[in-house]
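Deliverable D4.2, example record:
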Amino acid sequence: MFDNIENLKIISSLHKTCKPYNKIENRPTHSFIIRITGSVLYNFYDKQVLINPGEMMFLPKGTTYEYKKLSGEGLYTSINFLADLSDPKPTAYSLENFYEAEYLCNHFTDLWKFGTQAEKYKCFSLLYDLLSYVSNIENANYADKTKFKIIAPAVNYLKEHIYDCSLKAEKLPQLCGISGTYFRKIFTARFGTTPQNYIMQKRLTHAKSILDSGDFDTVREVALSVGYNDPLYFGKSFKKIYGISPSEINK
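Output generated by the structure prediction step:
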C-alpha cells in the first residue's frame, strides 16, 4: 500500500480532541489519525476497529465511516495528505516501535501550521519516516517475530540506557551475537531508521522537552542528561534537527 508513493502533498494537520460521535462520508484526503488519549471505535461497512492510545488509524481518501469515543479525553494528532497510493485500505497500526512517535504527536501540527519553511521540510521528513515505518510493517521484511527476537537483547538494553553517555550504537550487535550489518538490517526494518538515528532522535526529542519546560540550569546540564558528553556536539546535532540552537530556546 505504501511501497510506491507519488505526488505526496501535506494538506493540513490537527492537534485537538475528537467529538463524542461523528460520521464522515467520502473523506477528502488520506489521513493518519494518531490517538494520544482515549479510545475510539471506528465503524466501516465491513468491519469495526478499536484504536487505543499509542495507536494510529490510516483512513484513505474516499472512505466513509463512523467513529465513537469510548473513553478518555480523545486527544489526537492528524496528518492529512494527498498521494498516489496502491489500493489503500483503512488500517490500524501500533506506534510502539516508531522512534519519533512522541515528537510526531506533540510537535507536527505546530511545525506545519506555524513553522518556517525549513520546519515544514521537517514535516515532510517526519511523514516519509512514518510511511517507511508502516511500509515495513506491511511488507514484514526482516521484521517478523522470529527475526525481531534476535535483536531483542539490544532493544531492551536501549530502553534502559538510551540516555547513558556511555552508550555506543556499535556495541549493540555484540549483545545479540550477530554482525553489525545484519543487526542494522533487522533494526531498520523494525523501527524505520538506523540504530544511530534512533538514539539521536530519542535523545534530542527528550532534550527539546526539557528545554521547552525551562526546567534546567545550563545547556551542558541538558546535554549530559540525554547522553551527550560534548555540549558543542549536542548543540550542532540539535540545531541540525530543529533549526535553532539549544541556547536560543526560552530566551
